Amino acid sequence: MSHPSGTPGNITHPLPSYLDPQHLGPWGIYLQQVDRVTPYLGSLARWVETLKRPKRALIVDVPIEMDDGTIAHFEGYRVQHNLSRGPGKGGVRFHQDVTLSEVMALSAWMSIKNAAVNVPYGGAKGGIRVDPKKLSRAELERLTRRYTSEIGLLIGPTKDIPAPDVNTNGQIMAWMMDTYSMNVGATATGVVTGKPVDLGGSLGRVEATGRGVFTVGCEAAERIGMQIAGARVAVQGFGNVGGTAGRLFADAGAKVVAVQDHTGSIYNARGLDAAALQAHVQQTGGVAGFAGAEAMANGDFWGVDCDILIPAALEGQLTQDNAGKVKARMVIEGANGPTTPEADDILNDKGVLVLPDVIANAGGVTVSYFEWVQDFSSFFWTEDEINARLVRIMKEAFAAVWQVAQENKVSLRTATFIVACKRILHAREMRGLYP
Hints:
The chain is an alpha/beta fold. It has helices spanning 26-37, 100-116, 137-150, 170-184, 208-224, 240-251, 274-284, 341-349, 357-360, 363-377, 383-408, 412-431, and strands at residues 56-65, 71-82, 88-95, 122-129, 160-164, 232-236, 255-261, 264-267, 294-296, 308-311, 330-332, 353-355.
């Protein structure tokens, strides 16, 4: 019997176009990151192809009746990248630029992130290509419920647990939980996390990602001899993640000198009032027009004179075009995938310490794990207990990554991938292949 590959028993079919590293986009960036870590995986490298192929990718049509009686169709996704270490875990984003490549990459980064902080989850992600700002509240609810029904065959408290992401929140999660519960005939609070506290949500969840960014930032600063008190901080995105991180750094004595979001960029060399800016953003929807700052050109934001830069908006923000402008000693990735591989190399050559998303912003999924555990037991912890457990896990995870980086003389991103990929592939190897 002949084999197409020429090697008996080792047939590998070409990758579909959307998995091809040449088909760039977020998924292509993730594949480059896996290639960089492969030489450090030892005997587990024989399983590395597992990381390059999502376990499942579901594309669904989401039709809804609009308020004016017309029927609109939206495209939705749910991707489960890897389930070797536990059920899928990852957010759902509503954004007009959502693509399959993006959702696949985000699901893969969730696999890495969950393994890096050692919570018993695999990686998953979902999204709908829609501008939610153009929908009424009733239309948004119908969209959410229909999408939940369409992906209902994949999700469940022990199968795949969605959470909030870009343009989704506790209300969206409440609708998702209710829809799933109605379809299975029983209240299933554990099917999503990031819910309102009254519906089984966890205290501390809203600020968890920003608190994790702050925690690993402080841990890294201590190791490189940087004082947080007096440090100048620039933040892109000032929502739950960037806003919380900025406020916590300010409370620790740092100065938030520049902030950028979709409404513009603002600057104050003496330091912005982070708490007042958070309130302004909640009231107006953005940083533009904040009284305690002057406007600056968006392109100038990346070159602002600062010690710590926190990209906490969308992916692909730090590129080869602007990475050379960065003056910060440390970049803490609050967003998912904000730095391209080319920008990573530029920053590394400049001696900038990059704290990668897969460890830096893992506070959110860590507290989501706490919420899931609390829902199963119907026993809830205090906010102080939540924050203390979060800080302990983040510190332990960062210490492990830092040690691997020092031992292998690699970046923190590669070190995080080494730690996480080894955990995922070890689980894959121990479980074996069925049938």
